[in-house]
Amino acid sequence: TASTSDTYWVKFVADNGTSGPGYWEETIDPSKSTGLDTATMPHELVNNSTNTFTFQKIAYTSRLVGDDVTNAHPSFIGQKIQQAFFYNNRLGFLSLDNVILSQSGQHYNFYFTSAQTVTDADPIDLQASTTKPAALHGVLPTTQGLILFSKNQQFLMSAQENIFTPTTVTIRTISNYEMDASVDPVDMGS
Question: I need a labelling partner for 39 at 20 to 30 A (CA). Which of 17, 31, 76, 172 fits?
Fold first, then answer.
């Protein structure tokens, strides 16, 4: 049987821009969407000067390689984003029971660099697995990682040596306290 999970797309790029010698470059499946709809994604408020602001769409990075199997859209597509946050040079969103983090250092890029391999800088998209409903609504950054809050459970998203990569980060349950989803958690210190 043929496998679609190991398929990737390439295009020929001529050295002179038109024909002749050149090289093959990884690209996106031409029949697939190149990315996010900026009209439905979070916007930004930019401080232009003293007391002057602009509310505008964010220029999210397009999907440049792969397809819906090898470089899928982030799990918040079609869902409500509950919370936005920054952690370890990544932009993060909470949506349902998922935590989605952008590429490291590229806050508006939620797609992989290559469909052939995973790099440490690639986006992270993990689900808080549990036997109870876990619609995440709050997050607190700590030195150990991210504490995630749902109505009935709390989780710790962490990685060895606190370096978040797609292959090292995990989410585990740390407590089962009930809390009000309309109240954001607050760090009270020690």
Answer: 31
